[in-house]
Amino acid sequence: MKWDYDYIVIGSGFGGSVMTCRLVEKGYKVCLLERGREWKMHEFPRRPHEVRKNMFWDPIDNKFGLMEVRDTPESDVMTITSSGLGGGSLIYANVLYKMPEDFFKGWPGNINRQTLEPYYERVLNVMEAKPYPYDTHPYYRNTPKTTLLKKLAEEMATPPGATEKPSMVFPPIGVRFEGKFPGHQTRNIHGALQSRCNKCGDCDIGCNIHAKNTLDLNYLFRARNLKEAAHKAEVRTHAEVTRIEKKDDHYVVTYVIPEFPMQENKFTAKNVVLSAGSLGSTSLLLKMKRYGHLPLLNKWLGKKWSGNGDFISLIFKSKHNVDGTNGPVITGSIEYKYKDYADGYPHGMFIQEAGFPVGFAWFLSGKVPQFSGLAGLATMAAHHVKKYIFKVLKIVGHDQINIGDEMAKSIDRAEFTKRCLVLLGMGRDKPDGEIQLRDDDQALIRWKIDESQEHFTRIRTEMKKLAEMVDGVYVENPLTHLKKVISVHPLGGCPMGDSEQTGFVSTKGEVFGYPGLYVVDGSILPTSTGTNPSLTIAAMAEYIAEQIPEKHTVKTKDKMEA
């Protein structure tokens, strides 16, 4: 039988994009299916009506936008994931952090920091990631939130239980700083057009000038344009996979256009790579097991879930200028090294400053009226009434003709946004959660904070200290007090293991019991990464792709080995 493709890749995030690129380089015929749309330059929603229509992914309510926010009363976690070509790279905060060596404890197949080091470097090179040029360029040095985080890190004492004093780190970030001026457009090493970062803070809602090194501009751009490839990648957006079936020596993949869910389309392939993320991949496979399409999936499906210790808080009324609208969302990180949990599970955590878009600051200013703006508006109105009365009574006045200053005073100063420091924390929580299906096939996460309470106590304590250091008011996510967390880094659900007795997939990413069916995304990580996980997910994809033999060698100097 002749199959439609050698490989069908489902999902275009840090696993799927890497796999698509490397499989094309190896000479395979590859089709990439992505449920969301392709977002080109200046297409991300910004105007209010565009945001209402195109920001969120909620197909049941006819929304097919950029990000999906999932929450149910019975779930212990609220999650935020992406939809669109490039997957999570479209809305993540650009940070590409290597996982510390001791955090690999318990990983299967002798996979450790040394194993992944060359693959880490390969991803960083392909994505052209570099540390924020705070120390080398005046334009980027003028980033108040970065200056404040650096100052706080220098002044901090060693916390109880820590093995050393916390330190400020500038990790590599996937942002373009090349160009003669902010916004200057040049080609990246793959030929895609990008702009130099203008510090707009839009990273998490889609970068409209493509200063963000998203996967559609590097790995996928290469896969779609490699001249020497036997087959360039075929990319289909608006393609949501609903079924995977094993038929003899191949797989049948069924997908629908989300806007027209009743019309099914089918493709066949010798191999399938599922890269829809922790929630997407796991929930799809759970449904395949429930309905008998892949009945041999083992007991580890859905297990070893973690939220990567994600924790968010705000510090209001800082005595320092923060100006969160100035700079990429994250530029630096305070790294904490702690003694292990009592059971020997390694612990460490990271606190990073977070920015937000200028438009969000205007939104808050409109929603939270301030006395200065209201007083200015009232004063300007009174002056206009006075001028009208003078005109009617033919009284000669000597007021200023230029009213620019009056108009400026009618605008809110937004001091609460200017002096608001957003803190993002993450670290080593316990991977003891489980993704389950409700009766209506919707995924929910069962995870208890109790076994990871030491992490959350430590991160809350340190964030409160930072608030005290800036004389600010500390406010944290209230759901935490209900033992519910918000996770932007969901991991696990299809954990790696040395055998089917210890995991769902092998260290080659192949599902036990189903040769040719791979899972390559954050769901296969057996523990939390502690750091931002994107780089580790991509490095694991590089590691897995390298173990797949070549079908046809792409003989070209252009082939990217690093």
TrEMBL record:
Pathway: Steroid metabolism; cholesterol degradation
The EC number(s) this enzyme carries: 1.1.3.6, 5.3.3.1
One of the GO BP terms on file: cholesterol metabolic process
MF (Gene Ontology): cholesterol oxidase activity; flavin adenine dinucleotide binding; steroid Delta-isomerase activity
Boundaries of every Glucose-methanol-choline oxidoreductase C-terminal domain copy: 432-541
SUPFAM superfamilies to which the protein is assigned, alphabetical: FAD/NAD(P)-binding domain
Domain Glucose-methanol-choline oxidoreductase N-terminal per the UniProt entry, residue ranges: 5-286
Keywords: Cholesterol metabolism, FAD, Flavoprotein, Isomerase, Lipid metabolism, Oxidoreductase, Steroid metabolism, Sterol metabolism
Coiled-coil annotated residue ranges, if any: none
Cofactor: FAD
Keyword Flavoprotein: yes
Family membership: Belongs to the GMC oxidoreductase family.
Name used for this protein in its record: Cholesterol oxidase
Source species: Bdellovibrio bacteriovorus
